[in-house]
Design a protein that fits this description.
CATH superfamily of the largest domain in chain A: FAD-linked oxidases, C-terminal domain
Largest sheet of chain A: 7 strands, antiparallel
Oligomer: homodimer
CATH architecture of the largest domain in chain A: 3-Layer(aba) Sandwich
Mean pLDDT of chain A: 95
Structural class of chain A: alpha+beta
Number of strands of chain A: 18
Helix content of chain A: 25-40%
Strand content of chain A: 15-25%
Strand order of the largest sheet of chain A: 15-12-14-13-17-18-16
Chain lengths: 468, 468
């Protein structure tokens, strides 16, 4: 259990809290049944403790969120903001006695503007819902986390989440132009803009993106959109070693190509997928690379990338002829995590990002760590970004295996830092990596980050125990 | 004169300050001759008062910058960081008795890495120097302010500056991955990363970008690079009204095109350029639109954009056949500011950015304001961004005309806000627009921004009197 660090105001008890919340929220928006509230305790991370919420609120309006925050401030009750709880770092886990503030009912798309190429949305809009809605206007919202059919834009903003698109289109942060934020004390603040450019004052918008609900509650976002690109065409390349596949990645990126996707699966992942889905990938495949282009004429790029893969030692290069074949090739990638889960029942997904020139060193190091701890660790990577997801497979019922899993998870982060990387490319810090944040950004950085937190949340009620 | 708001520590006088600075800086890096230091008082903005620096320092190392900041903190002396002083908002103007901290001697490119697509640079590197250096590796650093042959990367970061490239490539902020910053008290802090992605902790990198030297001194930057695109091909279109040209801009952007440049000159600017350079633009041209594409095959886009211009009422559409013709067409745009300066001797360049769907309303409003104040105001615009530079032409020797110029300048900002825009798309707030910042971001925003400033600069010695 994570204990709240906030000293409760004298008059706080659950009854009073609920009563005060009900003064500004409809009854159906305030959940107190412990069986129900317990179901809001966790996101999808392993190894992250969670407390028991005092209450779960589901506001539908900005004013209701303001009421929740005013109440929380008055009673000194911690508030844990939540989207769809698909996060992988425990960032949305409840703390004992907290208000879980679920933004899932604020799910309206308020505006889609094809001339200004923006959408204005509430935080509870599902990523896939927005993607499809803007698609109908010929527009494209690139960020595509694996959980895109479930996760919310608010959650994506909280964690600055990424996806397969990032090698060409970047992470969520790139698409957030402006925010409406309810501050800890209930006041409403607007940041940013709805114009293509704007540099008036400090960039508080970007400060909120990736702040994991620790600075304020995002209640509205202005998002930048791109024109819908042509459907991407995929090429798959098999390699006899991970090193050769990483060499190909370096050649592709140094060669000036801009793939819309550049994914790598290591031998462990390829084997797991083969075992699960009988996809007929050859046993000799030690690494599989998938590259795609979404330009009007992808043929020259695909040919050049195929040649670069062969020069790097690819044993087979398979370009797709059309969108349907491309989808087939991507199936293996999409099945990776499910397949790795099947290995030992549970997985712990790391999120280390290294300079792409060090990708080969990272994968080699992970193999070493897996051998040392006698564990299966598969690596799937957004290779074009150097963003790897080493996935530790373990049996949660086996205490020693669980301990070794956690140790190897940490050793992978240490290796990432050693290679000039970061402990998190797109999943966030949450509870899972907070000891590691300090190692990455150093004591001066931590001191300044804490001071910034203090500015926005002087009482420390916003998602306490996360990040720091 | 801008008076410093800092109460001087008891032991401060210029002699002591200089002596202390010389303890950690070579003699040639400390300038005290008032004739010399006076030449560092201003950037390129009109109507911005400047004070007399006590001393100008030109450090060459991070340690020297740390020494300057430690000294400034000990003596409570304000520090005004400067790049090449090409800014247009007075953000680099000296305050009385300050240390001008010129970063121009820290001008080394430390690394260019084509696989990781990054450059690591010191702040004094000239934008064009970097652009050419990365070009030799087949790479591209997009931000291209008009002053690119003179301005420094540090200055670009301070103001989050833009340029002609932004409609496709965005502003400087998009290209800053990580920073080394010397804090007000002389401590060194690293922010961000050298990886393609990274979401560990609050995004302090972006907080520093555009902070106009008010939060710390950038001494090193990791910059993202793109592959060098093909040379762009330009199309020029003449219109019988600004409204028709703006309609064309909306059709182009709603049509899903991604031009590498989309610039507009209004009738006043066209006439000024014609008068200056005898370019033979027809007298009937009320607006000139320039669009460019830098894709491998720009022909289909250029044809489609030409057709959209004609549908919007273009009187003539002139596509360039090659790069040389493209350069000729861009000449008119490049001469705009020089031509407008020639009208009355002095100009005051505004920087209002509106949603591009409101571009026509902005230009029409500027015409109304020009008429009301009996002034010549030419509009050149990064039309694809909605970022306009209404340029007020006036005779600085004529007090009444100067007053009307300032009034019209302010009225243009008010109009921009009314249209859902921002007071600055790429030039920054500085001294020129600080009263306007509060109007744009509101009292809560200003309060939080001031509190953030307080975190990084508790003594208020960093570029005082700017932004707020």
């Amino acid at each position: 259990m994570i204990m709240s660090r906030i000293e409760a105001a004298p008059d706080q008890d659950r009854g009073d809290l609920t009563e005060r919340l009900l003064a500004g929220l409809p009854a159906e928006a305030v959940l107190t049944d412990p069986d129900v509230t317990a179901s809001y305790a966790n996101d999808m991370a392993s190894f992250c403790p969670a407390g028991a919420p005092a209450v779960v609120v589901l506001p539908r309006t900005v004013e209701e969120v303001q009421h929740v925050m005013r109440t929380a401030t008055a009673l000194r009750v911690p508030v844990v903001p939540q989207g769809a709880r698909t996060g992988l770092s425990g960032g949305a886990n409840a703390t004992d006695g907290c208000i879980v503030l679920s933004l899932t009912k604020m799910d309206r798309i308020l505006e889609i503007n094809p001339v200004d190429r923006i959408a204005v949305v509430e935080p509870g809009v599902i990523n896939a819902t927005l993607s499809r809605a803007v698609g109908e206007h010929g527009l494209y919202y690139p960020p595509d986390p694996s959980s895109w059919e479930m996760c919310t834009i608010g959650g994506n903003i909280g964690t600055a989440s990424g996806g397969l698109c990032c090698v060409k289109y970047g992470v969520t942060a790139e698409y957030v132009l402006g925010l409406d934020v309810v501050l800890a004390d209930g006041r409403l603040m607007s940041t940013g803009r709805r114009t293509a450019k704007g540099v008036a004052g400090y960039d508080l918008t970007r400060l909120f993106v990736g702040s994991e609900g620790s600075l304020g509650i995002v209640v509205r976002a202005v998002l930048a959109l791109k024109p819908q690109p042509p459907r991407q065409l995929v090429l798959a390349a098999e390699f006899a070693s991970a090193a050769a596949a990483c060499d190909a990645v370096c050649r592709i990126m140094a060669g000036g190509h801009v793939p819309s996707l550049l994914e790598l699966m290591d031998r462990t992942t390829v084997k797991a997928v083969n075992d699960l889905a009988h996809m007929g990938l050859p046993e000799t495949t030690e690494a599989l690379l998938l590259a795609a282009f979404d330009t009007p004429d992808p043929a020259p790029d695909l040919a050049a990338v195929g040649a670069l893969c062969e020069a790097a030692g690819a044993t087979q290069v398979v370009p797709a002829d059309d969108a349907a074949e491309s989808e087939l090739l991507l199936q293996a990638r999409r099945l990776s995590l499910t397949a790795l889960e099947a290995v030992r029942g549970v997985t712990m997904i790391d999120d280390v990002c290294v300079p792409r020139s060090r990708l080969g060193d990272l994968i080699e190091g992970v193999e070493r760590i897996a051998e040392k701890h006698q564990l299966t660790i598969g690596v799937v990577a957004h290779a074009g970004d150097g963003n790897t997801h080493p996935t530790v497979c373990f049996d949660a019922a086996d205490a020693d295996e669980s301990r070794r899993a956690r140790e190897s998870f940490d050793e992978i982060m240490a290796l990432g830092l050693e290679l000039g990387g970061t402990i998190t490319g797109e999943h966030g810090v949450g509870v899972l990596k907070k000891e590691w944040l300090a190692r990455e950004i150093g004591p001066v950085g931590i001191e300044m980050q804490r001071a910034v937190k203090q500015v926005f949340d002087p009482l420390g009620i916003l998602n306490p125990g996360k990040l720091f």
